[in-house]
Design a protein that fits this description.
mainly alpha, 95 residues
């Protein structure tokens, strides 16, 4: 993903109107604003070091890899409806 590409919500069950509202509300079509608000650039620099298992295979661009992981995490935190297949299931106690 380049700096200018909109952030991807993944497959959701949102209506087109609801997705459009969320995209506006969370700056998903303006990744530079999303990144600035969430401090992605600063956090990327401190997280671009590869883990030992990643060092074995290497990475063409550890900073880009870290940026995408941070964006994905921030997106899932801000918009829990994104990628519903990975959401934690919440159940009420049967007691």
């Amino acid at each position: 993903m380049t700096e200018r590409e909109p952030l991807d919500l993944g497959t959701t069950e949102l209506s087109a109107e609801e997705e459009a509202r969320l995209r506006r509300e969370h700056d998903l079509d303006r990744p530079e604003v999303f990144d600035r608000r969430n401090g992605v650039d600063e956090r990327t620099r401190t997280r671009a070091n590869l883990l030992p298992e990643e060092l074995e295979t290497g990475s063409a661009d550890p900073e880009a890899q870290a940026r995408e992981v941070l964006r994905d995490s921030d997106l899932r935190t801000e918009v829990p409806e994104s990628a519903p297949d990975t959401m934690a299931e919440r159940r009420e106690s049967g007691a």
